[in-house]
Amino acid sequence: MTNSSLHSALELLGWSGFFADQVKPTEADLVPRRVASVHRARIEAMGTTGSIRLELPANANTADFAVGDWVLADPRSDMLVRRLDRKTVFKRRPEVGRGQQLVAANIDTLLIVTSCNADFNIERLERYLIMANQAGSKPVVVLTKADTAEDVGIFQAKAEALQRDLPVVALNGRSADASSLLSSWCGAGQTIALVGSSGVGKSTLVNTLTRLESNAQQKTGTIREHDAQGRHTTTARSLHPIPGGGWVIDTPGIRTLYVSDITDGIDTLFSDIKELAQLCRFRDCTHAHEPGCAVQAAVKSGTLAADRVERWRSLVSENRDRTPVISGPRGNKIVRKKKY
Ligand SMILES: Nc1nc2c(ncn2[C@@H]2O[C@H](COP(=O)(O)OP(=O)(O)OP(=O)(O)O)[C@@H](O)[C@H]2O)c(=O)[nH]1
Ligand SMILES: [Zn+2]
């Protein structure tokens, strides 16, 4: 492969200047690989010639890698050498134990999926938006089951009001049109992921985007490989190609991520309120009763919805409560967890 065709083949996998700039001159002999699935003792990766199993250094811990990561590997031995810095990363706090579990990396766009029915919930959408903002991924709200709703416009308007310049797409996830409606985020080298509650139509949408017949789904969603005895085993892969060049990361854990330690994400979601808050007379204004409060003034004048301010206040205080703080020699304080 020539250098430029190699380069464009990598770009189809999501490679960009952000990653290329991290490769040192001494690493010119190494090749970039994109992590497609992470197992306890094994990492599968995609290269320009298909998927391979990476050899892991003795001290490697697969928990340090996420689906979507870019790594440098030795092309002769397939030995993983190092991981490149991530553009975006989603982590979750595990059900038990401390620390954060990596879920997926380098997702350009997060499709926040909800349906045009009782699932539609402003508070839940805000949590997902905060999560996307925090990770650095561009959020897009996808309203599924538009074919069953009487007035999609109501849902659309409510979702659009949640964050500045937020794209909102209403569609029927079972129809092929869904792919074209989402195509601007699924182009060559673009990586998306879907979050949303159970039953909103995430699997349906993934299937439509990857345009698979139901009997072909299993085949494409998995990698055939030889196990130690030379038998064929089938393992789940989490990085699925979208016709047109993009990738959808569909990995356990990403569909129902929940929020904690998300100060930056909250600030982006409520940037309008944040800007107003800087105009308050008092630096430590709580925006409840103080004179000269720009937030309350905006509510009074009708340019800012009072319930939006309420949701902002409760998310800020919840984030404060749930973000672990070091509390001396015993380490992290226990945080109360609320699931959505
Ligand atoms: N009418 C209509 N039905 C849909 C649409 N999207 C999904 N469905 C149906 O809704 C049901 C749930 O869809 P799934 O794709 O399984 O939902 P999911 O979000 O993957 O659910 P989990 O796997 O539980 O997380 C299925 O019966 C789908 O056929 C849509 O846009 N319109
Ligand atoms: Zn104020």
TrEMBL record:
* Entry EC no(s): 3.6.1.-
Source taxon at top rank: Bacteria
What are the UniProt keywords, alphabetically? Hydrolase
The identity of this protein, by name, is: Ribosome biogenesis GTPase
Native organism is Ensifer adhaerens
